[in-house]
Design brief:
Length: 299
């Protein structure tokens, strides 16, 4: 077993540690940004309650995003001017702190990648994780850290869950997507990744469920801890969302509006057994008719 911090390959970007869930990293970030003296892993444990061996891995990502720096004594971490601004905003309240953190991170590589991908509409979490993995050049073994990054962005409100497994970008916090070129990782150099040998990852390489809508007052929502829910729920069916169209004809009067949206698992979960059998019969009949029209026998 190796000891100490693992090293990144040349060009690979630093990602948040996956040894601590995103909702538990937020108090560590807040504490570091509000610090007026160097904080060690032991001090962070005392102030946040997170295990010292895990909360001590959080600063690596914050260093690369310009929020904290190593203390001159090389013992502990201190906030940068940008980090102190976030700490002062957080002292005014959770919404102000999260907003300041979004502003501080809006020009980071992951925010540019997110905007480029989501500029034209919501995308699936899996697709976003895949793109962030490519941009960060994260190997398969670090996919769990990419999921934690997405969880962090949801927790602070940069990413908004759409309720059907899709994620969208918060409006008004970024510039036009057209001016952002494909973000390329930096070349050369090995940087500490914030991961080290130790207890098994809390994230276990799996995403934390984050349904519902993120708002500035994330901590006020029932079942949320710093914006990341503690329990999962079946997402709303897309059909119900489609009905909320505002102006214009109702989807029930438009055949294309009924046929074009994909049927989601969340939609099927709300059907009775009789409805499912009826749907199966209709789909089978449609397949038979379509096959006859194309001149092929039904298998």
């Amino acid at each position: 077993m190796t000891t100490g911090r693992s090293r990144l390959a040349p060009g690979e970007r630093v990602l948040p540690t996956d040894r601590l869930r995103a909702d538990r990293q937020l108090p560590v970030i807040r504490t570091l940004c509000a610090a007026d003296q160097p904080l060690t892993a032991a001090a962070l444990h005392q102030l946040t309650g997170a295990p010292a061996t895990r909360c001590g891995l959080v600063p690596a990502f914050l260093i690369t995003t310009g929020l904290v720096a190593k203390a001159p004594s090389q013992t502990g971490y201190l906030p940068t001017e940008k980090g102190r601004d976030i700490g002062r905003a957080w002292a005014e309240g959770e919404p102000a702190g999260l907003k300041a953190l979004r502003e501080a991170w809006k020009d980071q590589w992951f925010a540019r990648t997110m905007l480029r991908l989501l500029g034209e509409g919501p995308r699936s979490r899996e697709h976003l994780v895949g793109e962030l993995s490519k941009t960060s050049r994260a190997p398969e073994g670090r996919t769990g850290q990419v999921h934690v990054l997405v969880d962090l962005l949801v927790a602070i409100g940069m990413l908004l869950p759409e309720g059907d497994g899709m994620l969208s970008c918060r409006q008004g916090t970024h510039g036009p997507a057209s001016v952002l070129a494909h973000d390329q990782p930096p070349a050369g150099g090995e940087v500490s990744s914030g991961r080290e040998a130790g207890p098994k990852s809390e994230a276990n390489g799996q995403p934390t469920a984050v349904p519902g809508s993120a708002r500035d007052d994330l901590t006020g929502q029932e079942g949320l801890a710093s914006g990341v829910p503690t329990t999962a729920r079946v997402p709303e069916p897309r059909r119900r969302q489609t009905l909320q169209t505002g102006d214009g004809p109702a989807p029930d009067l438009d055949l294309l509006a009924l046929l074009l949206p994909p049927v989601l698992l969340a939609d099927l979960a709300r059907l009775s057994g009789e409805d499912l059998m009826t749907l199966h019969g209709h789909l089978r009949g449609l397949a038979e008719i379509t096959t006859k029209l194309r001149g092929r026998p039904v298998a």
